[in-house]
Amino acid sequence: MASIFNDLLTTPAHAQAAGGGLLSGDGIMAVLPYVAMFGIFYFLLIRPQQVKQKQLRNQLSELRRGDRVLTAGGIIGVVQKVSAESNEVEVEIAQGVRVSVLRDTISSVITSAATPANDSTPEKTAKKG
């Protein structure tokens, strides 16, 4: 009878006192899947997004006249005027229709005036002879 009461009164903490803590083999193995999942999320989701945001920031800082841009509202236009001291960019969205938009509302630079439209080299014609 005393054995039954002794088993009921033994706490789980007392029973586990002989085991190791978090740094034991079991503790590391329990944390390892979470570390692996974070690593996978970082390299598949977080890191590419950071690279894309950095590229967009660089494109917006180098924005100039003639660049074709897409605004966050879905409007495509051509940059007409960029002022360095202000955050506004003048964009022509139709023939003779110009609007001022904030740099932060430009979601992507479709074509840049810095890159030529035809970047392939012209083929040399072979001499007949």
Automatic annotation (TrEMBL):
Pfam families xrefs: YajC (PF02699)
Cited InterPro entries: Preprotein_translocase_YajC
Localization, UniProt: Cell membrane
Main location: membrane
Role noted for this protein: The SecYEG-SecDF-YajC-YidC holo-translocon (HTL) protein secretase/insertase is a supercomplex required for protein secretion, insertion of proteins into membranes, and assembly of membrane protein complexes. While the SecYEG complex is essential for assembly of a number of proteins and complexes, the SecDF-YajC-YidC subcomplex facilitates these functions.
Record's subunit section: Part of the SecDF-YidC-YajC translocase complex. The SecDF-YidC-YajC translocase forms a supercomplex with SecYEG, called the holo-translocon (HTL).
Bilayer topology term: Single-pass membrane protein
GO cellular component, one term: plasma membrane
Family of the protein in this entry: Belongs to the YajC family.
GO biological process, one term: protein transport
Protein name according to UniProt: Sec translocon accessory complex subunit YajC
